[in-house]
Amino acid sequence: MKPKNILYIHHSPSTNTIKLSNHVENNLCNFSQNINFKMLSSLEANTSSFHLIDGLIIGTTENFGYMSGLTKDFFDRCYDELREKTQGLPIVYYVRAGLDGEGSKLAINKILKGLSWKQVLPPLILKGVWSDDYIDQIEEYVLTFANGIELGIY
Q: What is the pTM of this model?
């Protein structure tokens, strides 16, 4: 089986969001010999980061009822070139939302539609006051995605 490549782009500005991104990294780095995993911050990611990827995970915070500025910056910098080169890319995303995450979800879903990316699982919205249960939720979410990528389901 040919190894599959998963890219994870995140914005993790707080202790708790760093816990989430580290958990994603730890789980996917050791997930399978058939999965190559690469993690980048929203600032580090660019269009060349998408060379030969089979799936994408995006993690963002909700700021003022919208995705983080750095997540939006990533899309602003890369949208046009990615739209031409990555149609049909399987993607999942999560939002660490202090409120309800609806503004972030609406904005990201519009961008994904414009990029013609394939959202293969509903977004994971981790809303409200921090809960250690978010760690378990993120683990199940990304492992489900990685399993689907590895098996060629998405």
A: 0.96
